[in-house]
Amino acid sequence: MRIGELSRRTGVPVPTIKYYVREGLLSQGELTSPNQAHYGEEHERRLRLIRALLEVGGLKVAAIAEVLGAVDDPGRPLHKVLGTTASRLGAQGEVEDDAEAAAAHAAVEELIARRGWRTHDSNAAADELARALAAMSRIGHGAFTELLDEYADAAELVARADLGYVDRRVAVEDLVESVVVGTVLGEAVFNAMRRLAHVDASARLYGGGGGAEGCA
Amino acid sequence: MRIGELSRRTGVPVPTIKYYVREGLLSQGELTSPNQAHYGEEHERRLRLIRALLEVGGLKVAAIAEVLGAVDDPGRPLHKVLGTTASRLGAQGEVEDDAEAAAAHAAVEELIARRGWRTHDSNAAADELARALAAMSRIGHGAFTELLDEYADAAELVARADLGYVDRRVAVEDLVESVVVGTVLGEAVFNAMRRLAHVDASARLYGGGGGAEGCA
Q: Which domain does B30 fall in, by range?
């Protein structure tokens, strides 16, 4: 199809498609004449993936370029792709070097040892977890670390469900892309679900929080 | 304390503090002379809260102003504050009106009815959940809805832990602020934890993903 048709099918304006091609997110279509290119279904699919990472996942264009670069690199093992994705998803902030940061890092290391979780030295998620806990501690919520094992139970449940889905549903050639999709969009799914569960739990605990039951 | 001391204690530059005051995130200190203001511990605490929402929670300044405005409004019931927070946390995107969007909305409504969750008509989280599911469906992962109940189990676990913490640990006058902190920062905590659990689960399932066990 021509770029106009690709735009119509995906709802992405032509200049935006050209921008994605320039930034390396989307491969150039096959040139059929000096200024006309032919796009296929793989372009359509990739374009939908880019929009999903952007709009639902909240990733920036540069982060998407890096994540998709990892997806497209056939030599890159799965756990390295996951590492790249994780490092682009987390909040980027300055690392502070105070007592709260040290205590939070220690708490995370203890948690990982206690759960027997296998990790990498470069695992950005461990640093992000420590940063979030340190920030809570600085505003008087150091006791939040009491919840770490309940959070870890829930995280293991979700991770098992995700991996089971990938294992059951996904062809090997789509594995890496699916894991990235699951990491980014699955996060949006879980966050929304947690907020729904909060409203329900607070309605039950404090009353007044609920309207009609079972109405979206 | 003077603004310089407040800046030194929190690591936030003086011009940034003045910007937060102008934007309504932080109240003006008590004027002790026409161009000198006195700041107290409540300012220091609020400033740390702003930085945490910004750096760990990834909220923008306008979103923080809205969320803190809800926190500071004594007449606003807890579930409305939660609703405001939820609507500023979720990805903002255009709502598409296609078959995938309709199916996703139906799946979310069924889920809410099946779990007996109490919700509000205005619950932004339900819309965000539907948007994420529709985006997955558009890139060929419609079967992801099979995982909704496993995700919901995990979300209920986390929500119960959060509410239990608030109920046990938090003085009534800090309740609303704590719920906001828990929603925003707890999300960062869970997301990081889920990524850690992914690395562990993928190491167990596919091998090669893990290094030394129990090392952060």
A: 1-55
Between positions 50 and 89 of B, the ones with CB within 8 A of A are: 51-52, 55-58, 77-79, 82-83, 86, 89
Contact A117, A153 (CB under 8 A): no
Chain centroid offset of residue A141 CA: 26
This prediction's pTM:
0.80
Residue A94 belongs to a domain: yes
A107 within some domain: yes
B4 touches chain A (CB under 8 A): no
pLDDT tier at A38, thresholds 50, 70, 90 = very high
Interface contact A52-B136, CB threshold 8 A? yes
Based on the structure, what is the number of domains in chain A?
2
ipTM over 0.85? The verdict is no
Q: Does A16 touch chain B (CB under 8 A)?
A: no
- The set of residues, in sequence order, having a beta carbon less than 8 Å from that of A163 and lying 6+ positions away, is B198, B201, B202, B205
Residue numbers in B near A12 (CB within 8 A): none
Q: At residue A90, what are phi and psi to the nearest 5 degrees?
A: -70, 160
Asked, for residue B1, whether it belongs to a domain, the answer is: yes
Residue B197 lies in a domain: no
pLDDT tens per residue across span B74-131: 777 776 777 777 777 765 556 677 889 999 999 999 999 999 998 876 677 888 899 8
